[in-house]
Write a structure and sequence with these properties.
- The chain has eleven helices and seven strands.
- Helix 4 packs parallel to helix 7.
- The termini are far apart.
- About 45% of the residues lie in helices and about 15% in strands.
- The radius of gyration is 18 Å and the shape is globular.
- By secondary structure, the protein is of the alpha/beta class.
- The chain has a single domain, classed as NAD(P)-binding Rossmann-like Domain (Rossmann fold, 3-Layer(aba) Sandwich).
- It has a seven-stranded parallel sheet with strand order 3-2-1-4-5-6-7, sandwiched between helices.
- Strand 2, helix 2 and strand 3 form a beta-alpha-beta unit.
Length: about 270
């Protein structure tokens, strides 16, 4: 049976760059824009990779379920890289929370039902997860994502409303959603570990993608705190994702891999005066 790698948000950016490195797998790239997906598939096929496009809205469980079923029909699902997401400039708080937070719940739940021992799920978070003040982080609220989605959204939207201004509220919703992703990936790692399924999250910094460029004005404030004082490149993050998702990394589980050029540690300790 062929091995399958599924990459949400695989039509461009770091997701597509990761797909290019999965040459021994059947690759399924998913996203909301079919034209972008077809272009990505053509690019992957030109590299000799067997690839398929499958439209998916990760904010809808039934859409994620259809994606998982399609991938399982092609072979054994070995790698899931969940890089689909929305940034503050792209949507309002509720949409951001539905795609980034609940989308992660749907991906992890639906795919884990169809995965076997030796497989891996990588959930893409963000270094924004590390800038939230502690009083905004409530793990009891996070746990509601599995039991009461409406209440989960209500409570996080209330926290997001503490910010002043539309962009700021979306920014806070984004940071909350990514902090949740880090927590949820850890939760799933200990739950799915009994089945031999590895779960890890990876938190990029500001990356020179279409999404990253949209956020460069505000997100760019962290660039001076990074070790090399620059944005990350999509191919760098693609390699990081592919490495974390590699089955040979069997002991890497239940943690967040912070891949932000050092900006989080620079901001907190080493470059405080900048």
């Amino acid at each position: 049976m062929a091995n399958v790698c599924v990459i949400t948000g695989g039509g461009s950016g770091m997701g597509l760059e990761a797909a290019k490195l999965m040459k021994d797998k059947i690759v399924v790239v998913s996203g909301r824009t079919e034209a972008k997906l077809e272009k990505a598939v053509a690019e992957l096929k030109a590299l000799g990779i067997t690839a398929y496009a499958k439209a998916c809205d990760t904010s809808k469980r039934e859409s994620v379920q259809a994606l998982a079923e399609f991938a399982a029909s092609l072979g054994e699902i070995k790698n899931v890289i969940n890089s689909a997401g929305l940034s503050p400039a792209m949507a309002k708080p509720e949409t951001i929370l539905r795609v980034n937070a609940l989308g992660t719940v749907y991906i992890n739940r639906e795919f884990s039902k169809r995965m076997k021992a030796g497989s891996v799920i990588v959930d893409v978070a963000s270094n924004s997860a590390y800038v939230l003040p502690n009083f905004l982080i409530n793990k009891k609220v996070y746990a509601l994502a599995d039991t009461d989605e409406a209440k989960f959204l209500q409570k996080l939207l209330k926290k997001s409303s503490l910010a002043k201004g539309d962009y700021q509220r979306s920014g806070l919703a984004y940071a909350l959603s990514k902090n949740f992703v880090v927590w949820y990936a850890k939760k799933c790692a200990f739950e799915y570990g009994k089945q031999g399924i590895r779960v890890v999250s990876l938190s990029p910094g500001l990356i020179a993608t279409d999404m990253g460029n949209l956020e460069a004005k505000d997100g760019g404030m962290l660039i001076p705190f990074s070790a090399e004082e620059r944005m990350g490149k999509p191919e760098e993050l693609g390699f990081a994702l592919a490495t974390v998702a590699d089955e040979r990394n069997g002991y890497l589980a239940g943690v967040d891999v912070l891949c932000d050029g050092g900006s989080t540690n620079g901001m907190k300790e080493f470059k405080k005066k900048k």
